[in-house]
Amino acid sequence: MQEKKKINLTKKEALLKAANFCAYQERSQKEVRQKLYDYGLYRDEVEDVLTDLILDGYINEERFAKTFAGGKFRIKKWGRNRIIKALQQHDVSAYCVTQALKEIEEGDYLTTLEELIAKKSSSLSETDLFKKREKVSRHLIYKGYETDLVWDLVKDLVQNG
């Protein structure tokens, strides 16, 4: 694999490119910081450009976290645990993670979980009820749903047949 060649941009050029990068979709500070380093900027310049982008409203950590959490839940059907882990990998603050999780309605969360249980359960040809429940639960815990919640619903919803 070829190593990405760094481009050397001036601070002003980097600011314009980074603004376009942020305007295209919500970005975390970590993503933008890495992009600025890829543009060949030094640490002081990177922090100056980041500050400008934040002041101009191109970067907003809370807005990013809410958009990210909502999208991952609605589109990829991720559970809270996986969303939290992903936001932490983006170095999002605990406050913003909490705010982002408030974007997910409890009713929608449970309905989605029940739909995923039904879908996974019907896709399995397992005849042993215990093994079937185990496979369904493992799948949903991997997707980031809370272990206790998954097991409670799986016990009620997964039957033989």
Would you summarize the structure shown here?
With 161 residues, the chain is an all-alpha fold. The chain is built from nine helices and no strands.
How many β-strands, per DSSP? 0
Helix/strand structural class? mainly alpha
Structurally, the number of domains stands at: 3
Biggest sheet statistics = none
Name the helix and strand elements from N-terminus to C-terminus, one letter apiece. Answer: HHHHHHHHH
User: So what's the overall shape?
Assistant: elongated
Low-confidence stretches: none
Q: What is the averaged pLDDT score?
A: 91
Question: Radius of gyration in whole Å, from Cα?
Answer: 21 Å
Q: How many helices does DSSP assign?
A: 9
**Into which percentage range does the β-strand content fall?**
under 5%
From the N-terminal CA to the C-terminal CA, the straight-line distance is 49 Å
| Helix coverage percent | 55-70%
Folded structure, characterized:
The protein is mainly α and 161 residues long. It has three domains: 11-55, Orthogonal Bundle (Arc Repressor Mutant, subunit A), CATH 1.10.10; 61-101; 106-157. It is 70% helix and 0% strand. It has helices spanning 11-24, 29-38, 43-55, 61-74, 80-89, 94-101, 106-123, 129-142, 147-157. Helix 1 (11-24) crosses helix 3, helix 4 packs across helix 6 and helix 8 (129-142) packs antiparallel against helix 9 (147-157). It is elongated. The relative contact order is 0.10.
